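I am still learning, so can you show me any protein sequence you like together with the matching structure tokens, please?
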Amino acid sequence: QVQLAESGGGSVQAGGSLKLSCVISGFNTDRGVMGWFRQAPGKEREGIAIIRTDGIFSYADSLRDRLSISRDNVKNTLYLQMSDLKPEDSAIYYCAADPSWRSSLRPLLQNPSSFPFWGKGTQVTVSS
């Protein structure tokens, strides 16, 4: 059974940083693709960062300068470092995993339904 558990969310002031973690069980992080998505109230879930087993990654264009996705295959953990946070970054952040090989990552940012496994999310609130 695949389980994903996010942590690291919280309340920060604008300009601050956060590092989110996602511990994954029942799924080897050295397979397939993993990613981070977020969903703000009243908005659709959006992809922000994806990483593939070979280390190739893709970011949402508007966020690429402020994000860094990484993984630790020993700890089976996915990370997302976020910097210079803005109030509009406030959302629930989810990690997702797909054991399939994906040759192109950018389309996955627009298609969260491609991922079969999801965590329950962690809340990030950025105050001005």
About this structure: The CA atoms of residues 28 and 56 lie 17 Å apart. Residues 106-109 form the longest helix (4 residues). The mean pLDDT is 95.
